[in-house]
Specification:
alpha/beta, Aspartate Aminotransferase, domain 2, Aspartate Aminotransferase, domain 1, 7-stranded mixed sheet, two-stranded antiparallel ribbon, 34% helix
Length: 313
């Protein structure tokens, strides 16, 4: 029974979740584990250009995997044929490769897994296992959405998120720099967690977001950066009419630019340092890891912030 009265709760507007029809889980890697358990795959093809946490469910379940390379278009470099019990996982990089995902669906059908953790707004296709991450796009500590039509024969407990919120509150109250160590610590604590249902808190926050406004702002910021920087950008990733980007990928030969941006409080991550250990220098995957800067374009920012990024570059 819902209580009436008492002390006030967080003031969050009540809307609806973008992926309201999905299976709501606690993390993206656990959404992948759900797929592997439900489908019983024996072998999976994975891109070298990916985060090492992607391997967590494979190690946990003892599922074999083989890496593949991508090319300068962020597409699979060499054709692959799948055998019995095998599947292919492809990442919708930066939310900009949905058309290519559809081409892969035509080729591989239900034996394709689409990792949309960088493409929150990309809609799923019926019958194609697809998963999303909440915290790559919005201010939550955890949360993932999964589309999979094969039920998992497990009873899932509900997660709790309140104890993971410190860094979000600290960032709001003090600064991003002050909360960074807490953010890293909480990210570490997500490792090896069991599959659980999304927490009530994450559900509540995800139901408070103005998704249309966030998508519009991301698209506007991407277009603004691209108009100014495309002549210097060594990678060309046009923004499709229905695409909502996670970042603006800027590929540069300027090895010192990342540090200069950070020194000027423009925080750009490195996707993903583990790739430098996984593959050799001559490959596109290695080059992307070393030289690609994911410039922020998210809903927190507007034209003034984009101008500041452009001026520094």
């Amino acid at each position: 029974m819902k209580p009436i009265g008492g002390y006030f709760e967080l003031e969050l507007p009540q809307r609806s979740e973008y992926h309201s029809a999905a299976i709501a889980l606690n993390t993206g890697r656990n959404a992948l584990e759900y797929i592997l358990r439900a489908r019983g795959y024996k072998h999976v093809y994975l891109p070298y250009y990916s985060c090492e946490v992607l391997l967590e469910p494979f190690r946990k379940l003892g599922v074999d995997y083989t890496f593949y390379h991508i090319d300068e278009r962020l597409e699979i470099a060499a054709p692959m044929t799948l055998g019995d019990g095998e599947t292919l996982l492809y990442i919708n990089y930066y939310g900009l490769k949905h058309d290519y995902c559809e081409a892969l669906m035509e080729k591989y059908g239900k034996r394709l897994i689409v990792d949309n953790t960088q493409a929150f707004y990309a809609l799923p296709t019926d019958g194609i296992d697809t998963f999303y991450s909440c915290r790559k796009f919005f201010g939550v500590a955890d949360g993932a959405y999964l589309y999979c039509d094969q039920p998992l024969n497990m009873e899932l407990e509900q997660d709790q998120s309140w104890q993971r919120m410190d860094y979000l509150l600290k960032r709001a109250d003090i600064s991003a720099e002050a909360a960074y160590a807490d953010f890293r610590a909480q990210s570490e604590k997500l490792k090896d967690n069991p599959i659980r249902r999304m927490s009530h808190l994450t559900h509540r926050i995800m139901a408070s977001i103005d998704y249309k406004q966030a998508a519009t702002r991301r698209r506007e910021n991407y277009a603004f950066l691209d108009e100014a920087l495309k002549g210097q950008n060594r990678i060309s990733l046009p923004l499709a009419d229905d695409a909502v980007p996670m970042v603006y990928p800027f590929l540069t030969d300027d090895d010192g630019l990342r540090q200069r941006l950070i020194e000027n409080k423009i925080f750009v991550a490195q996707y993903w340092p583990n790739v430098l250990d996984w593959c050799e220098k001559g490959y596109t995957d290695y080059q992307l890891t070393k030289q690609l800067l994911p410039l922020p374009v998210d809903q927190r920012y507007g034209t003034e912030e984009m101008k500041r990024i452009i001026e520094l570059i």
